[in-house]
Write a structure and sequence with these properties.
Strand content of chain A: 5-15%
Oligomer: heterodimer
Helix content of chain A: 55-70%
Number of domains of chain B: 1
Helix content of chain B: 10-25%
Distance between the termini of chain B: 25 Å
Strand content of chain B: 35-45%
Largest interface: A-B, 40 and 46 residues
Shape of chain B: globular
Order of helices and strands of chain A: HHEHHEEH
Strand order of the largest sheet of chain B: 1-2-8-7-6-5-4-3
Number of helices of chain B: 5
Largest sheet of chain B: 8 strands, antiparallel
Shape of chain A: rod-shaped
CATH topology of chain A: Arc Repressor Mutant, subunit A
CATH architecture of chain B: 2-Layer Sandwich
Number of domains of chain A: 1
CATH superfamily of chain A: Winged helix-like DNA-binding domain superfamily/Winged helix DNA-binding domain
Strand order of the largest sheet of chain A: 1-3-2
Structural class of chain A: mainly alpha
Largest sheet of chain A: 3 strands, antiparallel
Order of helices and strands of chain B: EEHHEEEEEEHHH
């Protein structure tokens, strides 16, 4: 059972997924593993720029890398985890936004009720 | 009475089984107010699609009683409309609502929300239960539409502090 409740891990996933290139890299890696050089070329980036993106994804546990000889190969973290983490992150974002808005409305209702019925215990 | 700020405003999301996912949060008001915000069309419309989603939503029907239906429409690009609809299968005032999601055929989840009174506050648990693990995984597959929402995550993170 995977528990994603407000952990540092989830925050890291949010940050990792907030960038279009990094989401593109995850999609790419979902198809096949690739070296950082491959990814840099595919996304028209410098090697250094791509390394930074990979580091962010690695910290969030979405990607694992392995150095074989002179080549660092990247693949998705635990099987399907990246996809699930992305989905859970999106789900969390949606419900957090909804609950924030709901909270405001409930506060209004509460204020109104207290005003209308000040004597009620 | 001083309130522990960390108890509020924390939305928890977890996949509770192969076929279930839930979102919970504690609200600083009694259940009957949360119920009102959830079942009154004008109020529901204001939070189900919060402005931050950036998609105008219209509640066409919200008939919260057993056998009653709901229909929510989102304005898409041009004149397109995304409709979400279903019916209520269990309704216990101030306590629990269960409804179907029929826009996706028969693999749609059953949704439920429970309002539990906790010392004058309300613990809200929203749950979606899919008929099979495959149906939930398909839901995850459908998350390809999510990047648009995820783009707002940085902003959200900043707000969450």
């Amino acid at each position: 059972m995977v528990q994603f409740s407000a952990t540092a891990r989830l925050d890291a996933s949010f940050a990792a997924l907030s960038d279009a290139t990094r989401r593109g890299v995850l999609e790419q890696l979902a198809r096949a593993e690739a070296s950082i050089t491959d990814l840099a070329e595919r996304f028209h980036m410098t090697l250094t720029g791509m390394k930074k993106h990979i580091q962010v994804l690695e910290r969030a546990g979405l990607v694992v890398t392995e150095k074989i000889g002179r080549v660092r190969t990247c693949r998705l973290g635990a099987q399907g985890l990246a996809e699930e983490a992305a989905w859970i992150a999106g789900y969390h974002q949606l419900w957090n936004a909804r609950f924030d808005a709901l909270d405001e409305i409930i506060a209004e209702l509460k204020a109104k009720e207290n005003k209308d019925e000040p004597e009620r215990h | 009475m001083s309130l522990n700020a960390t108890e509020f405003g924390a939305t928890k999301v977890s996949r509770t089984s192969d076929t279930e996912v839930e979102a919970t949060r504690l609200f600083d008001a009694p259940p009957h107010l949360v119920w009102r915000a959830w079942t009154t069309p004008e109020l529901f419309q204001r939070w189900w699609a919060p402005r931050s989603m950036g998609v105008p939503m219209h509640v066409r029907e919200l008939d919260v009683r057993v056998g009653g239906g709901y229909r929510i429409e989102f304005e898409a690009e041009g004149s397109q409309v995304w409709a979400f609809f279903g019916k209520y299968i269990e309704v216990i005032p101030n306590t629990r609502i269960v409804w179907t999601n029929e826009e996706g055929g028969d693999t749609g989840p059953i949704s439920s929300v429970t309002f539990e009174e906790r010392d004058g506050k309300t613990l809200v648990t929203f749950q979606e239960r899919y008929p099979t693990k495959e149906a939930l995984d398909e839901g995850i597959g459908a998350a390809e539409g999510l990047p648009e929402q995820l783009a707002q995550l940085a902003e959200l993170l900043a707000e969450m502090g």
